[in-house]
User: Which sequence fits this backbone?
């Protein structure tokens, strides 16, 4: 499936925005203004942009937690400043400042998060089940990392999705790492998508640094799913060029990761640079357009930060919180 | 009129399902082998509601629990059948850590109307996973309501309340009560969660019990009636728990025995005892006594009937607090 | 791999014994003398005999729960009367009458059971891990049904076993049923062993009614595993000709199972009759030998029953039990 | 002599690992990313013990827990690192239902020497799964010992006791104490499980606390020293629990405040309160008070420091029971 020029520009702009936000999040956490964790996205954000790009508002999505799903959500059209505010513990936070790193956009069918990696899998079964039950035509975008496919929950989700032919995309952002382990030490094969075949689920492997390849894969996967063919598995190969989470070590097993290799990846595999080169070569955008898009993205990131800082810290009383556990 | 109509506890639960599924298309059920009906509470439901609303799943408890949560987020109202409630431990994170906490942690914007059901209870000689009563564990985790009926009447009414509740509810029943018969009105009624019921009035001592143990308590009350006047309070719901009714009873009797078939340590009985310490200390004429499953795994074999709170153990405790 | 005549005779004798014991268990539970459940084996016991036949005492085995693993255990050389006594709640029970349907033969490296189907998978990882850690040369025989492969625990076990090249056989006794569901309604493909390939684990599918085919598969699988090649998956196709568990319905989904089909299976697919025919045709045994073996098996079953009934019911005090929770 | 040698709590735990792994070849560790050392307690252990004794696993908590159980059955002595203790819910059945019950249910013939470790605790602003303290849940389930040190000294000694214990032990520590420094002897010593420790003597009121909350309690004791003489008892181990030491303390003080960072309902504090009701009723001059995490999910954001038992809340409770 091929992309229109307009689609390419939107994808490019969103990737620029996501990468600017990722940098802003890093500034904010380093400045001690964030509560909780942050897991830098770095050069791994093209798959997230592609995952969100072609979904309708009603299509449930579970964003991969890397870069805390900012790429996925903004690409889906969500105003993420409320989520960033959540990271800063503010009243404007999408979870009222109660969660630090959970998102909640129920109207956009992004329902939340869990600190337990792998929690996405069973929930996505529910989204797909509901779509089928309601005959709503919704599709499910279930994003997570290669490491998450260690959890047996992925098996139960692949099984149920295949068995019930649920409209779900298993979208794997495979950066070859899981915390401080190399995935090749955790999984006995080159691609975790090799799991799909056991359930009769089709799969594809895509270059995760190529924004447009990811987007084409997303279009193809969604078409498959929307046609009622049941689930599909897309594995986007990408890279982690920094530590797992801010402040942690950057090891694989007992060994430090090779800083030169990571520097090289950073330089040669930047998806925004690769996409810009393509758009220039194809004459879809000029260098000026590109510079403008990048500048806009930086400005937006600054505005988001300012918005969050302007919101007061959320400090509800215990009584208020006790009243919020159940709904009446 | 059918004021004498008797149903088994399972039939009463089934009737609640049928009425609520007719009333609300968003209600559906999922579980392992519920279409055939492992237990009579789901027997033949497919005939009326079809296999898309009465859904058999693979053996996959995390998938089942997540399916219920996700479907609830998408606007459905799942009834999730764990068959034996002890199997819910396979989905420990979904059931105890996520389901009840999702709403609050995400800004209390989107409740999860899920009913989880399962049979449980000691005395069937099957041990461990098939006996474990997970309510002690459930009440420890904020956000999950939990109840257990002692009669078919309460079963139907509580189940309707649970299905209509917008929060996750863990609805348990005792395996030995499944075939227990009692009066069940045909008409629509609800037994609200969080309201205890005085199953027998008395003035000397209060026994707080639930499920099968309400019947053991009633037996003891009857046996002792010429010596000690026993009030039997059926908790019915563990969370929310009706502390007010219990305190009112203690105000009258000044003595309390808590009967709880779950493991004693850190269970529901411990919580009630601590609450009475905090809120009813001055009402008491004797320390509260617990009669629970001892702190040993639920054995199978012939042993398990000796480890559950028997009438003898309850009577002994009643006599002790009345000394 | 081919079997010697002596091996065939042992296998045949053990199948006769297991089937006689299975019938005895049915008599006992129907007479109300058993505590807890029983799940009849029927004509599905050949795979269990094969699974246990070529193991050393030190090789850990998790028996499939159908027919409560009696076939597996007696084939491994375990004196199962203590386990039967457990079912009758007796002091002679291998768990001191505390368990109803758990086995415990730690010296035979059969460590126990759990009422949670799928519990075998993670435990078998531990057995395999320990074998590798100790460099003991032990192999692990991990038996369960096709339904059990719904549980995500199988994924974690297949993954870890493949990743660490653990010496483990995933032995699946696929009777096409799981409680009151047909496995074809629970799994999107003809063979659950299709899961193995996703982990690079080799697999084979065997006729589970053919005792000698099962035994040859076991030999082959064990050879693979003993040579350090990592795990292997063997799926034995068999049949359930009765209800899931004594006293329950015999349905698949909302429909009753076809009694005629089951009657036909029972008649034509009895593994003992099929094996007897082979042994007669190959002149390994005479009809007299066969009759003698069957008579011995019946007598043994009666003796086991009598042994159990002679043992007093286990009724330890709560204090005794409280002292038995921890070891000093 | 190194009587002044100070280590962090993590270093103290690491030292216990090193000494015990040297002593006993059957001891090994497994967990997610422990080779690199997600936390300093496993830092560089591979250098001495190799990757076959310090084993990184896939993200697969049931596999990890089962691996530990199976390896223990086969004669090894695993230390299973859940990283954050809340991740253990993913293996709910193995950890809470199976591990502690296997021994008893199988005739008490074959104990399972497993140590499970994990960090936990409120106040890091990360919420829920990363904060949840599973000891209230653990004590409810027979057969698992559970402890949590408040000092590096206790950490090393308790860890050695846990590793040498033949039963499953859940060994927790508070995330906020990982870098807490204190005296740790170089020599081999053991702090037995099931022995509480009086961290400060007093005569008017007893505070029972553990982990980080021992330090909050000590702060309160110091602050109130001219008004109220506070005795601080560190439970150290939740199961077995040293009831005798607590009752001896109450005998002296006649008043008790229990500080417990876990969810209040059906937790450790409830259990202790119930036990004091049963065994120390006549010793009390005021009802026992609990200061716990309220019955709400552990929030993240800035809120969580307000929901944990702060010094202010503890002081208030102390003043109340002393009124
Ligand atoms: C159940 C559970 N186990 C472990 C963790 C700790 N943890 C957080 S992220 C992570 C690695 C995830 O790897 P992957 O899915 O590949 O995502 P990536 O970080 O590589 O983008 C781990 C182990 C967790 N949060 N939850
Ligand atoms: C965790 C868990 N879920 C469900 C059950 C109920 N159950 C017991 S046996 C069984 C079917 C198992 O099927 P399979 O593994 O194919 O074995 P078979 O009975 O067919 O031999 C089920 C669903 C259980 N015991 N444990
Ligand atoms: Mg990864
Ligand atoms: Mg089967």
Assistant:
């Amino acid at each position: 499936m091929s992309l229109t020029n307009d689609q390419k520009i939107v994808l490019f702009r969103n990737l620029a925005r996501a990468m600017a936000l990722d940098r802003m999040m890093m500034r904010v956490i380093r400045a001690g203004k964030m509560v909780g964790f942050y897991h830098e996205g770095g050069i791994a954000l093209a798959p997230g942009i592609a995952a969100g790009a072609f979904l309708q508002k009603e299509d449930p999505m579970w964003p991969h937690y890397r870069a805390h799903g900012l790429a996925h959500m903004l690409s889906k059209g969500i105003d993420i400043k409320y989520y960033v505010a959540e990271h800063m513990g503010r009243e404007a936070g999408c979870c009222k400042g109660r969660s630090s790193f959970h998102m909640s956009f129920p109207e956009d069918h992004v329902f939340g998060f869990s600190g337990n990696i792998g929690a996405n899998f069973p929930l996505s079964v529910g989204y797909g089940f509901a779509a089928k039950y309601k005959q709503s035509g919704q599709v499910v975008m279930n994003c997570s990392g290669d490491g998450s496919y260690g959890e047996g929950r992925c098996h139960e989700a692949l099984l149920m999705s295949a068995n019930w032919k649920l409209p779900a995309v298993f979208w794997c952002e495979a950066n070859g790492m899981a915390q401080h382990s190399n995935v090749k030490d955790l999984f006995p094969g080159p691609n975790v998508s090799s799991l799909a075949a056991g359930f009769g689920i089709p799969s594809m492997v895509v270059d995760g640094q190529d924004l447009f390849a990811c987007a084409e894969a997303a279009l193809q996967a969604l078409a498959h799913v929307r046609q009622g063919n049941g689930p599909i598995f897309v594995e986007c190969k990408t890279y982690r060029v920094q530590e797992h989470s801010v402040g942690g070590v950057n090891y694989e097993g007992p060994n430090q990761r090779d800083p030169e290799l990571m520097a090289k990846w950073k330089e040669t595999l930047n998806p925004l640079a690769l996409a810009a080169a393509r758009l220039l070569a194809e004459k879809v955008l000029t260098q000026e357009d590109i510079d403008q898009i990048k500048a806009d993205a930086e400005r937006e990131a600054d505005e988001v930060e300012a918005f969050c800082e302007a919101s007061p810290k959320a400090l509800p009383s215990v009584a208020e919180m006790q009243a919020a556990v159940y709904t009446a | 009129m059918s004021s004498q109509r008797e149903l088994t506890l399972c039939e009463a639960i089934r009737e609640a399902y049928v009425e609520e599924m007719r009333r609300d298309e968003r209600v559906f059920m999922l579980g392992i082998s519920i279409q055939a009906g492992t237990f009579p509470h789901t027997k033949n439901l497919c005939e009326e509601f079809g296999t898309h609303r009465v859904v058999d799943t693979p053996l996959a408890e995390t998938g089942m629990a997540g399916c219920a949560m996700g479907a609830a987020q998408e606007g459905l109202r799942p009834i999730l059948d764990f068959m034996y409630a002890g199997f819910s431990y396979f989905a420990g994170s979904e059931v105890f850590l996520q389901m009840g906490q999702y709403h609050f942690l995400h800004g209390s914007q989107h409740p999860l109307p899920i009913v989880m059901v399962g049979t449980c209870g000691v005395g069937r000689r099957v041990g461990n996973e098939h006996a474990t009563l997970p309510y002690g564990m459930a009440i420890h985790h904020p956000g999950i309501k939990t109840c257990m009926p002692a009669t078919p009447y309460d079963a139907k009414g509580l189940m309707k309340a649970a299905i209509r509740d917008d929060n996750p509810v863990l609805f348990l029943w005792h395996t030995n009560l499944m075939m227990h018969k009692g009066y069940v009105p045909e008409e629509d009624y609800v037994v609200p969660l969080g309201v205890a019921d005085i199953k027998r009035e008395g003035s000397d001592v209060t026994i707080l019990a639930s499920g099968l143990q309400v019947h053991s308590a009633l037996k003891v009350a009857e046996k002792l009636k010429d010596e000690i006047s026993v009030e039997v309070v059926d908790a019915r719901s563990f969370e929310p728990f009706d502390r007010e009714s219990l305190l009112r009873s203690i105000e009258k009797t000044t003595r309390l025995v808590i009967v709880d078939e779950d493991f004693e340590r850190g269970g529901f009985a411990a919580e009630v005892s601590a609450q009475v310490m905090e809120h009813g200390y001055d009402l008491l004429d004797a320390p509260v006594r617990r009669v629970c499953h001892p702190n040993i795994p639920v054995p199978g074999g012939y042993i398990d009937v000796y480890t559950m709170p028997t009438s003898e153990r309850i009577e002994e405790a009643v006599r002790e607090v009345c000394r």
Summary: The interface with chain D takes residues 60, 93-96, 98-99, 102, 104, 106, 109, 111-112, 114, 116, 119, 121-131, 133-134, 138, 152-153, 155-157, 159-160, 163, 321, 324-328 of chain C (CB under 8 Å).
